[in-house]
Amino acid sequence: MEFTTALFYAFSAIMILAAIRVITARNPVYAALFLVLSFFSAAAIWLLLKAEFLAIVLVLVYVGAVMVLFLFVVMMLDINIEKMREGFWGYLPVAAGIGVVIVLQMAAVIWRGFLKPDEQIPAVSATIGTTKELGKLIYTQYIYAFEIAAVILLLAIVAAVALTLRRRKDIKYFDPSAAVKVKASDRLRIVKMKAESDRNNDQPAAPAAEQK
Fold first, then answer.
1. At 181, which helix (H) or strand (E)?
2. pTM exceeds 0.90 for this model
């Protein structure tokens, strides 16, 4: 067995065990840390396949941004774990069905390689990890799918902004369009008034000085 093959099996085993601990850990912080471990193991497998760009993106995007945000939310919010686990067994049949479908799909892909071991598969590991080749594929062969994904993400961003701008009775609402239309003359108005003072009339007269 070659050294790279041994590394592949080692990282695969670590990733599978970490993925199992993600769904079995009772503490959400531990589950998130096991998910980080599974991401690092997947990135190591990408490196073994000479896909350096995908490995770096997996670490930077998911581990560096998504998981940090998830841990921040979990640790800052007061989440009732027992209440969240009340309906856990009710979703088990659906989760098991989805898991079986995923396993069957992966088995079908792997089994095809065992049925036809002599079939020549084009080597793409030399160029799959470079940004140049990915850019060529995205903007030529997969241009329509890429643009559809961009439109969906844009709609998600607009929807998130619209949800934050909704009017609520318990908070003060700020209308950005009304703030933009305000002119400098509407913010401040200077009124000239005659200076008046009733200080001398309101105060009692000072007592006369005592004579010696």
1. helix 176-181
2. no
